[in-house]
Every structure is written in C-alpha cells, then in structure tokens.
Amino acid sequence: MNWLSHIGKHASRLASLELFRYIGPGFFVTVGFIDPGNWVTNVAAGSQFGYKLLWVVTLSTVILIVVQHNAAHLGIVTGLCLSEAASKFFKPWLRVLMLGSAMVACVATALAELLGAAIGLNMLTGLPLMVGALFSALFSAWMLFSKNYQRLEKWIMGFVSLIGLAFVFEIWLADVSWVQTFTGWVTPSFPVGALPVIMGVLGAVVMPHNIFLHSEVIQSRQWNEHGDDVIRKQLKYEFLDTLTGMGAGWAINSAMIIMAAAVFYKNGIVVNELPQVTVTLAPVFGKASAVVFALGLLFAGLSSSVTAAMAGGSVFAGIFSEPFDINDPHSRVGLSITLLGALAAIMLLSDPFKGILWSQIALSLQLPLTIIPLILLTSSKKVMGTYANKPYGAAVLWITGLIVIGLNLALLIDMAR
User: Which residue ranges run through the membrane (predicted)?
Assistant: First the structure.
C-alpha cells in the first residue's frame, strides 16, 4: 500500500513539473492589462463612482479569457500568430484595415505604458516625464534585444507579482466595504457620465495588442509540429495558464478600483492625475504607501512597455507573413514604430492623465477589428482543420464580439450628444 502511495506521489510531482513547462504565456500577456492605462481607468472609476464599476472588470475579464484562449488556440494549432494568419488567409482590404488599425492600437498602448512608467519615476525621483519615457523606451528595447522569450516571461511574472503585492499592501491599509465590493463585482450599473470610463476600463483590460501577442508567444513554441497528442495536451494546459494569468489580472484590477473607492470616493476626492494619488495617500497612510504605489506604477509601465513593443513588432512582421524575430528588419521596424510613435505622441500631450484615459478608449474602439477577424479565422476549417471552433464555442465568441460592438456603439452615441 505504501508502495502504491509512493507511485501516486511521484506521478503527481511529475504532472506538476510538466504543467510548469506550459505556464508562462498567460502571465506574459497578463501584464498588458495591469498596465498604467489600467491604473488610470481604474483609479478614475473608483474615485468617481466608488465600487459601482467593479462589474466592468468582471465582464471584461470573462471576455478576455474567451478571446485570449481563442488567440492562443490559433497559435497552437496553426503555428502562426494572428498577424501572420490574417496576412495568409484574408483579402488585402481586410488585412490592411485589421493590421493597420492594430499598429495604431500598439502605439496607443505604448503611449500609456511609457508615460505611466515616466510618471512613476517622476513620483520617486522628480525626473521629467519625457526623460522618464525615453528611459522606459530604451529599457523595453534592451529587454527585447536580449532575444530570450523564457527570460522575458520570468521577468514579467516577477513584475506581475510585485504589482499584486503593492495593491495587497494598499488595500490592507484602506477601510474597504466588502459588501459593496461583492455587490459591485456582479451588479451592472451605468451611473450618469460613466460610459467613457466604462469603455476605458474595457479597453484597458481587453487590449488588441495582447490578442496578437498571446498568439505570437504561443506560436513561437511551434507545438503544431509535434502531432495531435501534443496539440491536445497544450490546448488543455494553455487554458489553465490563461485562466490563472487572467484571474490574477482580475484580482489586481479589482484591487485598484477598491483602493480608489475606499480612499478617494469615500472622501469626495476625484483623481485627475496619478501623482495626486501619492500626495493623497501619504498623509492618510504614511509615506510608505505613496512609495509603494509609485513603485508599482513604475514596474507596471516598464513591463508592459516591453509587451507593447513586442506586439508592435509582431503585427508589423505579420504583414509580411513573418513571425516576430528581433533579428528580422520587419520586426525591428514594427518595434521602432511602436516606441517612437508613442514618444512622439507623449511630446504633444498637454494632460498626461487624460491622454492615457483616451488611449484606452481608442483601444476599445479598435477591439472589434481584432476580435471579429480572429473569430473568422478560428471558426474556419480551412485554417484550423479539425480544431476549428465547434458551434457552441463559435456562438460564445460571437456573443462576446457583439457585446464589445454594442458597448462601443453606446459610447459613440454618448459622445455624439
């Protein structure tokens, strides 16, 4: 009996070790939706509307899990990233519309990442924003030129952990209403004037560049070359990886809104700029809380700027039917367009906080141009073979896409008034 128990324990240990071979891509893209854009939209949501918009994080995360798993599904089965698949299977007009708008989305994303890291540096050292943004861009380029996905994944997972710990600390200090928190998570609410913030939160969680990036990181492993058994196993483990990574992101995004609701909304403070957060936190909870917030913002900006630049390189390389490769000129051009375009936009901004908020709204408006083509690809037997979406899975994806389109239409109508 002891012998059987030993075998069982040994098998369990081996299974656990095998699982960790597959963990990484989900957390790699998780940092993209706990980036400075999320900090801005979540702090705005919590400070203006209390706990009422927590449901948006829940809905966005459910949409995110469905869409990101589908993007990874494409990469695992075909060995192509989303950009490559679009170039191979779509007509030129759709390819140009999808990938051209995706490049703009990558630039908008990088704007938020670089500016967020610069704001964090400014809070800690007083360094001017433009200098901090330039430093962050150079850091991103250096990380990508290291040419090692696995090392990048470990760095990113470390950053995600540090950001999470920062908000555990902030919430531990705050007087949180957990009844309102649980209600807010599951009860849809549309307060007057909240729609732009709702769409900002949605765009900051379900980010176009992350959809491209997930398929890129997955396809780099080329599981499709190892046969059906490996593909099926990878699909199973990948979903667990995605679920775990996105779940961590949901908790951190929720923590941002909860902290803002408990500290700012409760005291009638509407946050209009991120440095205002540390100025407010320090007298209430002590200097340590302000430093922790600034450090978390810096880590979020640095790590997510890496993923934004990589996504830009992936999208641009895919236009030429190539995977991301830092040694390839097309990948380098895409990376450069993303980082330099973001730096140029930052120079033109008069209000960094509003600039980040509206960049996230822009991401939300681009989402249908990424999600709908993705569904078309993964539902096609020509592309996916026997792994094409089944009717039930396709229906879930189309409902997800229609929800995003509906919210975008509501925002456009609201803005037109």
Answer: 20-41, 53-82, 94-119, 125-144, 156-174, 194-213, 242-265, 290-320, 332-350, 356-379, 391-413
CA-to-CA dists, residue 298 to 60, 111, 294, angstroms: 24, 14, 6
Beta-carbon contacts of residue 356 (< 8 Å; ≥ 6 apart)? 36, 37, 40, 111, 112, 115, 116
Q: What contacts 360, CB < 8 A, 6 or more positions away?
A: 37, 38, 40, 41, 108, 112, 199, 200, 201, 203, 204
257 with 271: CB under 8 angstroms? no
The answer to whether 174 touches 292, Cβ cutoff 8 Å, is no
pTM: 0.81
**CA-based nearest residue to 85, from 338, 394, 375:** 375
4-16: per-residue pLDDT in tens? 333 334 333 333 3
How big is the CA angle at 238 (ends 236 and 242), to the nearest 5 degrees?
Answer: 125
221-278 confidence digits (pLDDT tens): 555 555 577 677 677 777 777 888 888 889 888 988 998 899 889 888 888 777 777 7
Residue 35 half-sphere exposure toward CB, CA atoms < 13 A: 39
The answer to whether 80 and 88 have CB atoms below 8 angstroms apart is: yes
> Rounded distance, CA 153 to CA 26, Å?
9
380: left (phi over 0), alpha (psi -120 to 50) or beta: beta
What's the CA gap between 386 and 156, in Å, rounded?
34
